[in-house]
Amino acid sequence: MSEVRRLLEKSGYSSKAIEYYLKKVNVGRVENSSVHLAYTGPCDDTMEVYLKIESDVIKEAKFQAVGCAGAFSAGSALMEMVKEKRLEEAEKITEEDIIDFLGGIPKQKIHCACLAKRTLRNAIEKYRSIEIRSDV
């Protein structure tokens, strides 16, 4: 077992959260994304979300972050959760949904799920404002 894995387990990350972090699931950029947005949370971690949206359905979702393992596992999980979801469905995903999807993260890292959710919400709001302007 790697030292990183052992430390993450000792810190309280679930196996799934550790795998998402180590494998960098959904980390990257979406070429020709419909919307891209960066958000810095109160913890000073920054997350960038890239979404490809077709007919109000998220077809592709990736992110990048400057942050801890919690930010990466939460971002990875949320991007996985929103694929093939309508924008309205994606907006309803809560921090608790992200944590449950991962099977748990340390209590002190719950704000990372909030960072992921807020970044996604802001990206969807930006997308909608772009769509409204292009319809005018």
Query: What's the helical proportion of residues?
Result: 40-55%
Topology as H/E string?
HHEEEHHHH
Q: Biggest sheet, strands in spatial order?
A: 1-2-3
Sum up the overall morphology in one term.
elongated
> What's the tally of helices?
6
Strand content: 15-25%
**Terminal Cα separation, in Å?**
57 Å
Instruction: Let me know the largest β-sheet.
Output: 3 strands, antiparallel
- CATH class, named Alpha Beta
The helix/strand class is: alpha+beta
The mean pLDDT is 95
Low-confidence stretches: none
Q: Give the number of domains.
A: 1
Q: In the CATH classification, which architecture applies? A: Alpha-Beta Complex
Radius of gyration: 15 Å
Query: What's the count of strands?
Result: 3
CATH topological fold name: Sufe protein. Chain: A
Helix-strand blueprint:
Blueprint: H1 3-11, H2 15-23, E1 35-40, E2 46-54, E3 57-66, H3 69-82, H4 87-91, H5 95-102, H6 110-135
Antiparallel strand pairs: 1-2, 2-3
Helix pairs in contact: 2-3, 3-5, 3-6, 5-6
Structure notes:
- The chain has a three-stranded antiparallel sheet, covered by helices on one side.
- It is built from six helices and three strands.
- Strand 1 (35-40) and strand 2 (46-54) form a beta hairpin.
- The chain has helices at residues 3-11, 15-23, 69-82, 87-91, 95-102, 110-135, and strands at residues 35-40, 46-54, 57-66.
- The model has no long low-confidence stretch (mean pLDDT 95).
- The chain has a single domain, classed as Sufe protein. Chain: A, CATH 3.90.1010.
- Helix 2 packs across helix 3.
- It is an alpha+beta fold and 136 residues long.
